[in-house]
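Quick one, probably user error.
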């Protein structure tokens, strides 16, 4: 099944999201269907199979690179990511993300500036 990501998540700091291997994997044997990942993910990565009481990853490229909130919240520890923090740091280095972030901070200065 080919799933198309939400267009607003097509790029991560200018990098085509389809080129970045980062999405959750669910261990079906561990998943007890709590659903906290489904209701907590603001990017709609998951759907809930009400018949089987299991969670499915249906929009993997909607997942924010580096986010592991669903894994942290899962009471069964059923969600994992490819390589964890080390993988994210590798992506950041390989794609020169930090220089892209500096540029983005300048472009969005007015909106992001902290004012006391």
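Nope, works fine. Designed sequence:
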């Amino acid at each position: 099944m080919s799933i198309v990501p939400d267009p607003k998540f097509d790029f991560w700091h200018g990098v085509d999201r389809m080129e970045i291997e980062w999405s959750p994997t669910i261990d079906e044997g561990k998943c007890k269907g709590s659903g906290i990942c489904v209701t907590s993910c603001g990017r709609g990565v998951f759907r809930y199979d009400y018949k089987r009481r299991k969670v499915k990853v249906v929009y993997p490229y909607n997942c924010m690179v580096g986010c592991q909130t669903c894994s942290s919240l899962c009471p069964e520890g059923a969600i994992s990511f490819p390589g964890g923090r080390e993988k994210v740091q590798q992506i950041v280095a390989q794609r020169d993300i930090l220089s892209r972030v500096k540029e983005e901070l300048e472009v969005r200065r007015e909106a992001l500036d902290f004012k006391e």
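The longest strand covers residues 46-49.
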